[in-house]
Design a protein that fits this description.
The chain has helices spanning about 5-30, 35-40, 45-50, 55-75, 85-100, 105-110, 125-140, 150-170, 180-195, 195-205. It starts with a helix and ends in a 10-residue tail after the last helix. It is elongated, with a radius of gyration of 19 Å. The chain is built from ten helices and no strands. It comes from Rhodococcus coprophilus. Keywords: DNA-binding, Transcription, Transcription regulation. GO terms for molecular function: DNA-binding transcription factor activity; transcription cis-regulatory region binding. This is TetR family transcriptional regulator.
């Protein structure tokens, strides 16, 4: 890559990361372009070379967030050492923990509840996890891990609605919020109503496994 193109790529990446931090902290409306530029080290001219507006910049952050979501989801879907429910648990917990250690995901989480981007939730992280959740639920049914007659779409919808509801109950990106525990309950309660007695007995005895795809 020519040096000029590489500099432009780095400048754009720095602006997106700085914008993500500002959006995660303040939301879209209150985010300051001046602070974004100050923390990125970029000039206003450089920003408007890459982005037409503040909204355009926010959409770039959302796109980046989608890539980060997809990476987490793919990692767990492909981790076949665990059963489908265990992989679903790991995926949900990693997504929750990313709210504290991945500023882009934290920004995506904040932006999709802003009025300007409320429709984005159906197209981005929520949709990515929903498709993966249904895929894992289908695998669980094939393995006999659900009770007979469970509606998979209702199960995935119940988990997804619970996770989405957490957005409105607390600022999950704030320090000290136990996101993992909150997200775990969004899965555990539906599982207690729908998983097979055999699976539930094993889970109650052993708890959730500690295995993680990053350890491979």
């Amino acid at each position: 890559m020519p040096l000029q193109q590489e500099r432009a790529r780095r400048t754009r990446a720095a602006i997106v990361e700085s914008a993500a931090a500002e959006f995660a902290k303040r939301g879209f409306a209150a985010a300051s372009i001046n602070l974004i530029l100050e923390h990125s080290g970029a000039t206003k001219g450089a920003m408007y070379f890459h982005f037409k507006s503040k909204e355009d910049l926010a959409r770039a952050v959302l796109e980046e967030g989608l890539d980060h979501y997809q990476a987490i989801v793919d990692r767990w879907v492909d981790f076949t050492e665990l059963d489908p429910f265990e992989r679903l648990h790991g995926m949900i917990c990693d997504l929750g923990e990313a709210l504290h250690n991945d500023v882009v995901i934290a920004a995506e989480f904040r932006l999709v509840i802003d009025p300007e981007f409320v429709d984005e939730a159906r197209l981005r992280g929520t949709a990515v996890w929903g498709r993966a959740g249904y895929q894992l639920a289908e695998q669980a049914r094939e393995l006999g891990l659900f009770r007979p007659g469970v509606d998979l779409r209702r199960f995935v919808g119940a988990v997804g609605s619970s996770l989405a509801g957490q957005r409105y109950l607390a600022d999950l990106t704030a320090p000290g919020v136990d996101v993992r525990s909150r997200f775990e309950s969004c899965l555990e309660v539906p599982l207690e109503a729908t998983a097979s007695e055999e699976w539930l007995a094993r889970w109650r005895e052993r708890g959730w496994p500690s295995a993680h795809p990053s350890a491979q």
